[in-house]
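Sat 14:20. Reprocessing the chain from the morning session after the first attempt stalled halfway. Input below, unchanged.
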Amino acid sequence: MAAVDYEAEYNLRARVPEHPEFFARWARDAEDYRAETLKRGRAELGLSYGDTPRQTIDFFLPEAGSEAPLALFIHGGYWRALDPSSFSHMARGLNGRGFYGETDDKVVTDAGFILIVAFPLFVFLMSMLQRALEKRKDARIAAKKAHVSNAQWRGGW
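Finished this time. Tokens:
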């Protein structure tokens, strides 16, 4: 089996030569959305949640009101570039559908990476356990109904 060239696999900039055009368009769209939401009083930018300059959140409020659900966009940046302000425009569609939108720039630690990878697996396993327990409950109810009807047929013996 051939060795995997991880640099070639994960270096999307090398695979997409026109990536600077995408980044420029994203930067324009993000800046426009930040300006629009700030003007309307629906954005709080650069909120700090930690000790490092990269631990910031940009928060975008929907027009729907305070009871809206929250959507969080986490940017890991492949530890190379970009920041939350590069993705502000991602909140536009969510805000338009009544969600709070948030972009976040996390410095991913080993524990954080394990949590990010393990959490979906945990949710999957818990949903499978719930499904198995529901099937078991349904089988018990069916067996109990069968036993009652059988006992009635035999006259209660």
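The longest strand covers residues 43-48.
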